Amino acid sequence: MSRRIDTDVVVLGAGPAGLAAACAAMEAGARVVLVEREERVGGILKQCVHDGFGLVRYRSKLSGPEYALRDADRFAALGGAVMLEAFVTKAERRDGGFSLSCVDKGGVVELSSKALVLATGCRERTDRQVFIHGDRPAGILTAGLAQYMINVQGLLPGRRALILGSGDIGLIMARRMTLEGMEVVGAHEAKPEPSGLSRNVRQCLEDFSIPLELSSTVTSVRGGRRVEGVTTARVDEAMRPIPGTERDVECDTLVLSVGLIPENELARSLGVPLDPATKGPKVDQSMHTLVDGVFACGNAVHVNDLADYVSESGETAGRAAAAYASPGARPERRLVPVEAGPGFLYAVPQLVDLGSAAAEASGGATGAGSAGSAGSTGGADERAAFYFRSRATMPGGAVVRMATADGTELYKRRYAVLRPPEMERFELSPHALSEALAGMRGDGARLVVGMERLEPK
Amino acid sequence: MSETKVVTCIECPRGCRLSVSVDGGAATVTGHACPKGEAYGAQEAISPMRTLTTTVVAEGAATRRLPVRTDGELPLGRLLEAMAAIDPVVVRPPLRRGDVIVRDLLGLGVDLVATDDLVPATPSATAPLAASGIAGAAGTTGTAGTAGAEGGRP
Question: Measured on CA atoms in the order A311, A312, A317, A320, is the torsion positive or negative?
């Protein structure tokens, strides 16, 4: 006998994005069911014992669990319901809403909702997704797995580790492994610059005299039952190993920190179009995907540097999902694409919904709608947040402009320096959006975001 | 005799590159974007200080480790010594984030505090969200630190 639950909003994933989305949706008056695969909420933050979370949102430096507990407490205070050790195996659109098959300890639960928020996070690239020759003995693990072993299970993954890649988790783990008594012989990054934040290079590598080898990679692994060593090599600009630069390094552990990919299996099954640049769903400024009623947030949309911005997008998605699920007419979506110039690795959102922007602007003008009313996506003062990464390092900085196709400038800002590892963010007021609306008619409507590189002084 | 050092600020993700010139005992910082960065640069040039984050062994709890951190900074050069001092520490539930685990670590005037809640291994019958209305989902509700579904773990 299967159980049935009817609700307004189902949120998939109880990491920082899902927790924020669930809280925001409940605060907007919606009934919410939060579904989490693990036995506790908090997502990956549970294993992030280092600090630095919450600088933007709470103006304090919190550890991962402390940061996650803030919204977990908020969710509990709202009387929120979470299904733990539960997993959605199938999602379908049905009767203008969604029907989900969910499995938990009690068996199968059929969930039906008016709106769906995907907060499924991202996954680490593994050794299957990078090209390394040789053996596959025990001792090859991703940085996140090393982090889980040490911080959650209390196990050391090895004695002498080499790190491939220089993502933030890899850098954090270099320090963590060192503090726990392992020897970290070095971090090898195939690119000419580190992928992680400068402060992590400083406090995780330089603090412990761990060498960072740039333009260097691991070409093969040697070992029987266990890793015995790896071969490293310098690489050229095309990241091809340079013959003659090979070096044998003895180690029993190879830690991979070679990138994160948004997790969107369920989004794909619902036909949600993805952006090849972010590998996450294309969304508008409300984190609404191109499938009506499906919202997405956090690292499922694009890989963020900071949990604070993951939560921010969760709040936006949760509020918008509650508004979508509320009774009454939904403003018609008038989606116009945001075209990012060649200087951008990507820009999110990829679309702007001028329909909801117009509804918000007029709602604000008449003062209609009480605060927290489920019929509002957050009020007229809600600003659209844009996130982007530059394709290349621009030491002299750049000017970023957003304009309509006919050249009306909506936003302009000068950045002192742009680096691909550092996500940038700016906001557009609803006023700017309604101005854009005024000038836009017809099929060719679009917004353009451009980047003008400045030379160092 | 003044000496200029270039250091990367670790106060926030911006990672400003600071130039610090030390003259006598006094440091002059440039390149910072905020007062925290200025203070960090001055301290970094004279004697680098760091917050230590790690875990301690938990017994009788739903989880095996309790995340902890120092509630202030200690000298960078003493982090490994602090780790050795923390190594034998074993905690038991219940504990709440902010609870002091080790007072005055190494006599440096900083405390080691919990950064997560620690709950007993046995599932609590009165989990705060257990009555929140998901039919048949009893025992599958809880928040971080309150769900006790790992009963079999040491």
Answer: positive
